[in-house]
Amino acid sequence: MNSLLSIAPEVSAALAAGRPVVALESTIISHGMPYPQNLEMAQRVEGIIREEGAVPATIAVADGRIHVGLDEALLHRLATAKGVAKLSRRDLAGILASGGLGATTVAATMIAAHLAGIRVFATGGIGGVHRGAETSFDVSADLDELARTPVAVVCAGAKSILDLPKTLEYLETRGVPVIGYGTGTLPAFFSRSSGLALALRRDTPEEVAALLDAQAALGFPAGAVIANPIPEAHALPEAEIDAAITSALADAGREGVGGKDVTPYLLARIVALTGGRSLTANIALVEHNARLGARIAKALAARA
Ligand code: PSU
Ligand code: MN
Q1: Which residues bind Mn(2+) (predicted)?
Q2: Which of 74, 93, 102, 132 is most deeply packed, by most CB within 10 A?
Q3: pLDDT tops 80 at residue 237
């Protein structure tokens, strides 16, 4: 395994000393946002985690290794290179064997974080059950990863490009705790609430850490979703975002977009259709999640 995993010295020193570390994904950089906002976001998010007293570990694959903690050059390549592969669980072996450049989704980032010994991961949104999944079978591998890999994912819920009720049902079936952070309902990414009730609510990083430690003590393989609503000031009006999502979905259908291209296609269409307003909101919520991720990592470190 060591030959496949390349952990940055700062990250491995923090892990060895039991200091807080927060994992970050790279598909959000390569496929989730346009350049140069993607690079600025990635750098700012790392800065926020440091400001909170934790160590950021952005994860990607290059030159036959999984990198946990990226240098400036690799971060820049991910933000600018054409044809960066989008990696989920099924893609990891292939890209490691071929030596290509790849960005990790939530699923692949969880795998890498767990291999490195990192328990907390912050991002924007998770994948889920797509609308129309009853005919397309399009269910993100993120959900099964949450059921089998013990990493807590701090996110702003999921976008309503997905079928949110089905996504919650699937997570329930697979035994994944979905914890509303300061809320009793599932946040819907651009808006603070989907209206869907959650079984779990926690209001402080310490309470979240206690739950994660209890889950670890049970020996369950599963991760957890920490669903953190977008800050009020950045939430988008639901009518505006719903209209953009409806038309993005129609465009995807017309153009026959399928497989792993669906999510990046929809994200880019929504940015275009909202005149960039969705991008500003997306960046704000990722920053907010990074701060909470760092605080949860610190609370976990304090319990150890
Ligand atoms: N949702 C977002 N932004 C993103 C993604 C999802 O709001 O960037 C990315 C994440 O990397 C997530 C992936 O893991 O898309 C899910 O892709 P798929 O639906 O193909 O599983
Ligand atoms: Mn899919």
Answers
A1: 138
A2: 102
A3: yes
Residue 1's pLDDT band, with cuts at 50, 70 and 90, is low
What's CA 249's distance to the chain center, in Å? 21
25 is catalytic: yes
Q: What is the mean pLDDT of the segment spanning 53-82?
A: 98
Vertex 33: Cα angle to 5 and 69 (nearest 5):
20
In this structure, how many other beta carbons lie within 10 angstroms of the beta carbon of residue 125? 28
Q: Which atom of ligand 1 is nearest to the CA of 106?
A: 14
ipTM of the complex: 0.99
Look-up of token digits 């990198």 = 67
Amino acid at residue number 270? I
Assess whether the C-beta atom of 141 lies below 6 angstroms from ligand 1. Answer: yes
Does the pLDDT of residue 63 top 70, yes or no?
Answer: yes
Return the pLDDT at 160.
Answer: 86
36 φ, ψ (degrees, to nearest 5): -95, 0
Q: In the predicted model, is pLDDT for residue 293 greater than 70?
A: yes
The single residue of 46, 145, 159, 298 carrying the catalytic annotation is: 159
Mutate to test the pocket of ligand 1, among 29, 59, 87, 106 (most ligand atoms within 8 A of CB): 106
Asked if residue 30 lies in contact with residue 84, where contact means CB atoms within 8 angstroms, the answer is yes
Q: What is the pTM of this model?
A: 0.98
Contacts of 134 (CB under 8 A, 6+ apart): none
128 lines ligand 1 (CB under 6 A): no
Share of the chain above pLDDT 90, in %: 97
Q: Is 159 in the pocket of ligand 1 (CB under 6 A)?
A: yes
Cβ atoms 100, 277 nearer than 8 A? no
Three-state DSSP state, 276: coil
Q: Which residue has the tokens 């491995």?
A: 12
pLDDT tens sequence across 193-211: 999 999 999 999 999 999 9
- Which H or E run includes 24? strand 21-24
Closest atom of ligand 1 to CA, residue 128: 19
